[in-house]
Design a protein that fits this description.
CATH architecture of chain B: 3-Layer(aba) Sandwich
CATH class of chain B: Alpha Beta
Helix content of chain B: 25-40%
Number of strands of chain A: 27
Number of domains of chain B: 1
Structural class of chain B: alpha/beta
Oligomer: heterodimer
Shape of chain A: globular
Number of strands of chain B: 6
Structural class of chain A: mainly beta
Largest sheet of chain A: 4 strands, antiparallel
CATH architecture of the largest domain in chain A: 6 Propeller
Shape of chain B: globular
Order of helices and strands of chain A: HHEEEEEEEEEEHEEEEEEEEEEEEEEEEE
Largest sheet of chain B: 6 strands, mixed
Radius of gyration of chain B: 15 Å
Distance between the termini of chain B: 41 Å
CATH class of the largest domain in chain A: Mainly Beta
Chain lengths: ~425, ~150
């Protein structure tokens, strides 16, 4: 944090304290000082460090390899999204670059995290959810760095400016320089509520850019009745069609998953039920899926559901047809397996997840060399403290697991 | 002085200091809280979070049931660290508490101590009849289900 930004923060804090504390009081200077010191510590800290008495950091992070092989991670630090670079597979990290010059609130916990990707034209893209003060509301934010370093002013990708839910975005880049974001959107739920009409779940909206994220067309609806707060995933289908997958609420309250195929203009071609576990619950699973399509065009997914009364992570192939059929469905990990992610490289499919063993959180992986028929399981790491969800990422023919933990920071594990 | 001042600090520092409304929960306290033999009266331990709309329905129902039958004890657990959203959302239900929020212990360790078979879905509710019996329910509660599990009539 430079001097100017620190001064702005200081003024904001003083203003906020004055607003909230009409009688002032002798504690004011001490509190301001304490907050400034704390803010300075947080801003200067690298992700592995944590000030002794600060609030728990929000660990939600994403990572991607640049075309030149550099590892890039994106995470929040206070009211800034930061990009970290590592040229040695995560052993050391550069000082972070600020994505949003103007500070703002950022969601980066649980199913939320900033996303990072490269557009087809080589630009670096970052998206995140900016929460509004009202609980569970926010907007989908996006920034582009044409040179990979200097970010353009942040834009909101949707035209709807209501103080409602636009959260849990998924960022998909296409080879023709389209960029598509889809997110959980409650505008139709809010409209139904205003009319005192019943409404199941939330909805999914998407916005398309045809110029690598310089501008976005007006958003449109992909589906009604999504689940409310599970992360959304995306991939590119065998024929190049964009795919988005999310937890849905099928009638009356079955929280299985839906898969949308989009037309080239980003509108919906089809929305199909993709899993059939029939978890009936009026509740929030906080557990979104992951989807990939391999070089043969086969769709592979991992997801969490309660099936026959037990909550489990599942893997399965989503075979296309008039209706999707799940092939090769199998359990991933043990009864505590959670938040699996997946990636493919030629001839390889990898799943990573975390699993609490009663003492520590284990990071584990499943590797398949035969398109998901057989897997071998490996132990990757463990941590004593809080941790983010695992992300499986690819560099050319190799797959890696990226995992951020409270105690160890960013880590990268090459997979065999 | 300190009590009057705390909400302000919380607002500004976004929960970097503990407020008095919530007791931080760690794995040891969680295990104690969920032990059937520790509850000598009909008790409901209800897990909720600020992003769980269905949890509000449960808190509202439990609030009305405690008014109908004073023997019912309701303990709330926010399955997230204390933050500025929590107390304004919970206080409207007028539940006496105690009220817990996840503390600085590993969140997965706290969840495991609460229930090793819980996948994190909310609302999640544990109902004790006060005589050693314990039931678990995920999702929205109904008064008959609470009556059955606690042995109380509302």
């Amino acid at each position: 944090m430079n001097g100017n930004k620190l001064a702005v923060v200081l003024l904001r804090v003083i203003f906020a304290v004055k607003q909230s504390l009409p009688q002032g009081g002798v504690l004011l200077p001490a509190v301001v000082l304490a907050l400034v010191v704390q803010g300075a510590q947080a801003a200067d800290a690298v992700p592995t460090m944590r000030p002794a008495k600060a609030a728990r950091p929000e660990l939600g992070s994403s990572a991607v390899f640049a075309p030149d092989g550099t590892l890039l991670a994106v995470a929040k630090q206070g009211e800034h999204v930061m990009v970290y670079r590592s040229s040695d597979e995560g052993r050391s990290w550069s000082p972070p670059a600020v994505v949003n010059a103007q500070p703002e609130a950022i969601s980066a916990d649980g199913e939320n995290r900033p996303k990072i990707a490269f557009a087809a034209d080589g630009a670096l893209l970052v998206s995140w959810t900016h929460p509004f003060p009202k609980p569970n509301t926010g907007s989908i934010r996006f920034a582009r760095a044409t040179d990979g370093q200097t970010f353009s002013p942040v834009q909101t990708v949707h035209r709807d400016s209501a103080e409602i839910t636009h959260r849990f975005e998924s960022l998909l880049v296409m080879p023709d320089n389209r960029v598509i974001l889809a997110w959980i959107d409650k505008r139709d739920l809010e409209a139904a509520k205003a009319n005192k009409a019943p409404w199941r779940g939330a909805g999914i909206y998407a916005a398309v850019s045809t110029d690598g994220g310089r501008s976005f067309q007006p958003e449109h609806k992909l589906a009604d009745h999504s689940c409310e707060c599970c992360r959304v995933t995306s991939a590119i289908d065998a024929d190049g069609a964009p795919l988005f997958m999310w937890r849905h609420v099928f009638e009356p309250n079955e929280r299985d998953h839906a898969l949308a195929r989009l037309k080239p203009d980003g509108t919906v071609e089809s929305v199909q039920r993709a899993t059939f576990d029939r978890w009936k619950v009026d509740g929030c699973p906080h557990h979104g899926p992951s989807l990939v399509v391999d070089e043969r065009g086969v769709r592979h997914a991992v997801w969490f559901n309660q099936k026959d009364g037990a909550g489990r992570v599942f893997y399965g192939r989503l075979a296309a047809g008039s209706g999707i059929s799940v092939e090769g469905q199998r359990q991933v990990g043990g009864p505590r397996a959670a938040h699996a992610d997946m990636a493919v490289a030629p001839g390889k499919l990898a799943i990573a997840w975390k699993e609490f063993d009663g003492e520590r959180t284990q990071l584990r992986g499943l590797i398949s060399a035969d398109g998901g028929d057989n897997f071998s399981e490996i132990a990757l790491a463990a941590t004593d403290g809080a941790s983010d969800q695992a992300r499986v990422i690819r560099r050319q023919d190799q797959l890696f697991v990226f995992w951020r933990t409270e105690k160890e920071g960013f880590r990268l594990f090459p997979l065999p | 002085m300190m009590r009057r001042f705390l909400p302000v600090v919380l607002l500004v520092a976004a929960g970097s200091l503990a407020a008095a409304e919530f007791t931080p929960l760690d794995r040891i306290e969680a295990q104690r809280l969920l032990s059937a033999d520790k509850h000598r009266q009909p008790t409901v331990v209800t897990l909720w979070s600020s992003d769980c709309g269905y949890c509000k329905a449960n808190l509202k129902l439990l609030s009305s049931l405690t008014r109908n039958n004073r023997k019912l004890r309701v303990i709330t657990v926010a399955a997230e660290p204390e933050n500025a959203h929590l107390w304004p959302m919970l206080s409207r239900y007028g539940l006496a508490g105690p009220h817990y929020a996840y503390g600085s212990d590993s969140p997965e360790a706290i969840s495991y101590a609460i229930d090793p078979n819980w996948g994190g879905e909310l609302p999640r509710t544990f109902l004790f009849d006060g005589a050693g019996r314990k039931e678990r329910i995920s999702g929205v509660l109904t008064a008959p289900a609470i009556e059955k599990a606690t042995g109380l009539r509302f």
